[in-house]
Structures
1.
Amino acid sequence: DTGVSQDPRHKITKRGQNVTFRCDPISEHNRLYWYRQTLGQGPEFLTYFQNEAQLEKSRLLSDRFSAERPKGSFSTLEIQRTEQGDSAMYLCASSSTGTPYPNEQFFGPGTRLTVL
Amino acid sequence: AQSVSQHNHHVILSEAASLELGCNYSYGGTVNLFWYVQYPGQHLQLLLKYFSGDPLVKGIKGFEAEFIKSKFSFNLRKPSVQWSDTAEYFCAVNSKDNFNKFYFGSGTKLNVKP
């Protein structure tokens, strides 16, 4: 069973640098989600894709954040000009419309970002 | 906007003790409800879910949760915890109008003493 994978697992960067994270969903899943989790909080929704279309974006997703899913498979989340407040765990999840429970989301291990 | 409250931030129990973790949500419409668990060093995993029907839902590892619509609650229970239940537990909700957007509580860390 190949679950959701994320790369890298950890990223340390200096303030002002750009970072990019990758998420590979479960292969038959057409929906992909990004969440951000800070210490002591639950995951907060950022955005989601159905196939290659980005259908919803949270207000948390400032102009410095951009997400893509060019071929409807893997997705990337880029943060430009990182700030210390961007330090968090970035989680990816996927789901399928083809199951009895289309909105059951399967989570990846996350990418922990530290901005110095 | 929807919100989810988990009032117990940290719970410490001895093995064999009973567990109940509170979860309340605010949303006026029809919701789906979930409990996720995150074991140390692992990713979030679904513990159980409620979509419709019997409000008492049974999940994996002996966990269950009861949806009480009048109280906007979905509390998680286990009659007898084990050391291996040490983890962080998150309650989550989405609406049937927009089921792609999950709202999570802040989590409850459960520490079971052997």
2.
Amino acid sequence: EVQLVESGGGLVKPGGSLRLSCGASGFTFSTYSMVWVRQAPGKGLEWVSFLSSSSRYKYYADSVKGRFSISRDNAEDSLYLQMNSLRVEDTAVYYCARVRSITGIGGWFDPWGQGTLVTVSS
Amino acid sequence: SYVLTQPPSVSVAPGQTARIPCGGNNFGSETVHWYQQKPGQAPVVVVYDDNDRPSGIPERFSGSHSGNAATLTISRVEAGDEADYYCQVWDSRSDHWVFGGGTKLTVL
């Protein structure tokens, strides 16, 4: 069974840092691009960051560029999101997801993990 | 990036057909994907690449896309279809993914 499990969420003060992890199982992790998507309480989905299978390509939403950093360890089947200079508006459930694509460009997200809650508050 | 617009809510009686629109600016050349999210759960893709359905998703779910308009159609709606639905595209101009604001489907 393909499974993604996030961890590392919690309460952090504005300006603080947090590192999220996403453990993958049930598929060959090293051959798939991955993304982070977040959802603020009661709000919609917002794509945060993308990382290609070899880590060659990294993309970030404008709202997090320069503050967040995505990485992966293919030997450990794990994806990470280092979040620095956190703001109140970064409060959200953060999901990791596998990218699927017929053409190898763009694509959709399937499956998603269960999410981990990040709360930024003083 | 593209801006995708969805109505906040759609209501439909059981057994009827629900149509959830997704409009925007100039995304006609991109393929559209649709996600279902039930309360307290992670999103699940129900339609990808405009009109393809993942295994395990009922045939009642279908998608269409023409120009700058896409539609998720749910036939013979059931109470279990009540959820939030999001459209999504990849913006090839900026290498960003964009979601619509989401539509809450209520089954009357």
